[in-house]
Amino acid sequence: MAHALALARHAAALGEVPVGAVLVRADEMIGEGWNQPIAACDPTAHAEMIAMRAGARQFGNYRLGGTTLYVTLEPCVMCAGAILHARIERVVFGAYDPHAGAAGSVYNVLETEKLNHRPELIGGVLADECGALLRTFFASRRA
């Protein structure tokens, strides 16, 4: 999660919403990403999506079973859908997102019994630090 936080800080320095993500398999990082929708002119360029794309290329398969995704903010609906399709085994996230979270805050996409895959969820890891980064970023944007 520390590396994901460093990536989130990098995103903030670039003027992007500070979210970072790291994809790990067998204690090896196979993908990383930070939010880039503004720079990439791409609404799908969330940190999780970028990390999963990189991991899939390195893994040689769009199915990412046996992996853990670390992300500084609770995934949104789009990212949760991609996590399910990729069959990611575990999702560890920092701050909960009371506005768009899809891992229990607003929606519970990742744990719905109506779908055939449910990753293990661990939320609130370094939540204070992850949340503070987001609050500081948005406070500076409003000022």
Provide keyphrases for this structure.
143 residues, alpha/beta, five-stranded mixed β-sheet, 5 helices
Structural class: alpha/beta
Distance between the termini: 29 Å
Radius of gyration: 14 Å
Q: How many strands in all?
A: 5
Could you state the order of secondary-structure elements as H and E? HEEHHEHEEH
What's the main sheet like? 5 strands, mixed
Oligomer: single chain
| SS field, number of helical segments | 5
Helix content: 25-40%
| Poorly predicted ranges | none
**Overall pLDDT, averaged?**
96
Strand order of the main beta sheet, please?
2-1-3-4-5
What is the structure about, briefly put?
By secondary structure, the protein is α/β, with parallel strands linked by helices. The protein is 38% helix and 20% strand. A 5-stranded mixed sheet has the order 2-1-3-4-5.
